[in-house]
Design goal:
alpha/beta, 8-stranded mixed β-sheet, 4-stranded antiparallel β-sheet, binds pyridoxal-5'-phosphate
């Protein structure tokens, strides 16, 4: 049917996808959706999503704070907020960064975002034209790969080892002519591998950024979750001229609040604020005020202490179980913080096939492939220990180990 002289969309081709923007084609990946979909499954020993344990979430005190905000008639909590964030929550976050990082961002150097994933989206929107080169750790957070690819960037990987990003390999790439606009890194307790960048490499990395003129995007999602409470020097505090730090309150407060931050050079932040104006305009004001009130009472730091103890204990239960059950030829990282342990299977064992067999045994994990920008990782898998009861970890690992033993014996299955 013709409406206003135009042919109805579905009559043209019958398929909506023919009208989708070019940026949705290609391998943007839908990996996060399938991980989130598993989040409600019961009867499953799940090492799958990188979810915080609800036991860490704020309790009744949040109801009290919320009640007070409403009773006081605090309109700022209900109103649209300025795009960079409300003044009170901004001051709280800036003071906290000053205390934790030894550097206080200037007024024009930071904004509050709707989670770290939005900050990555804003950075992408600001910097990336189709085909622009972006370097990421290989493997890395698949949400970041998706964010960069959704702006049609050309995403390539740089290897990591037990000291984090291999900065010498990066240097060779740069010397060989690579000209990335952005280098994305998760320096602490990396997702998915659980490794951290050494102090020495941190300094070398920011020097490379200065020398070759690219932006380092430092994602500190797990920085505050070191089991021993240790925090190496942040890249942003080392080099605020070439680093944007992207942070989140999802792992330290709770993800439902959807709050994060980005700090970086003023010129960059000004553009992130512009980009946010036509993304969601502002992060939710109610959440910002809750965070501020909760944080100012010192409760965020108390919550962190409890979270670190919980995740540290879970991680050691997992490492013990791997030691006990895994056959020869299987290797894994030994995280000192965060949510994840990264497993390397014997050559030729396919983690995607294994995940299908594991589902039949009611065990879930994420196979390695989606964490690589280039299709590697078939013999890797990620085990999240953040939201799984201590009691079921050994049984989950025992079932996985049995499947791996079987696959080693019968590789053609
Ligand atoms: C490295 C990393 N960055 C960012 C995020 C997303 O954070 P947010 O919930 O603030 O969007 C995650 C969540 O899994 C993550 O692992």
């Amino acid at each position: 049917m013709r409406e206003g002289g135009r042919v109805g969309i579905t009559q043209r081709t019958g398929r909506w996808e023919d009208l989708f923007a070019a940026r949705t084609r290609g391998d943007v990946g839908g990996g996060l959706g399938s991980i989130l979909a598993l989040s409600t499954a019961t009867d499953l020993i799940s090492f799958s999503g990188g979810f915080p344990d609800p036991a860490t979430f704020p309790g009744p005190v949040l109801a009290e704070i919320l009640g007070k905000l409403i009773a006081q008639g605090d309109a700022s909590a209900m109103q649209y907020a300025p795009t960079p964030g409300l003044p009170g929550p901004r001051a709280f976050i800036a003071e906290r960064l000053d205390r934790l990082e030894g550097r206080c961002p200037g007024e024009a150097e930071f904004l509050i975002t709707s989670g770290a994933i939005e900050a990555l989206e804003l950075v992408s929107k600001t910097f990336l034209d189709p085909g622009d080169p972006v370097l990421v750790e290989s493997p890395t957070y698949l949400g970041a790969i998706m964010a960069f690819r959704s702006f049609q960037a050309n995403v390539e990987g740089v290897p990591i080892d037990d000291k984090g990003l291999d900065v010498e390999a990066l240097e060779r790439r740069l010397a060989g002519g690579a000209v990335p606009k952005i280098l994305y890194t998760i320096p602490e307790h990396q997702n998915p591998a659980g490794v951290s960048l050494s102090e020495e490499r941190r300094r070398a990395l920011v020097e490379l950024a200065r020398r070759y003129g690219f932006l380092v995007v430092e994602d500190v999602a797990y920085r505050e979750l070191g089991f021993a409470g240790d925090r190496p020097t942040s890249l942003w505090s080392l080099a605020p001229d070439v680093v944007v730090q992207v942070g989140t309150f999802s792992k330290t407060f709770f993800p439902g609040v959807r709050l994060g931050w980005a700090v970086g050079p003023r010129e960059v932040v000004a553009n992130l604020v512009l980009a946010k104006q036509n993304t969601d305009q502002c992060a939710g004001a109610l959440g910002q005020r809750l965070l501020e009130e909760y944080g100012r009472r010192g409760l965020l730091e108390e919550q962190n202490l409890r979270s670190r103890a919980l995740y540290g204990r879970r991680c050691s239960v997992l490492l013990d179980a791997l030691e006990t059950h895994m056959p020869e030829g299987v290797a894994w990282t030994r995280p000192r913080g965060g949510f994840f342990c990264w497993v390397t299977l014997p050559q030729g064992i396919d983690a995607v096939e294994l995940s299908e067999q594991a589902m039949a045994e009611r065990v879930a994990f994420v196979p390695g492939v989606p964490f690589f920008p280039n299709g590697r990782g078939r013999n890797n898998l990620r085990l999240a220990f953040s939201r799984i009861d201590d009691e079921v970890i050994p049984e989950g690992v025992r079932r996985l180990a049995a499947l791996i033993r079987r696959a080693v014996k019968e590789p053609s299955r």
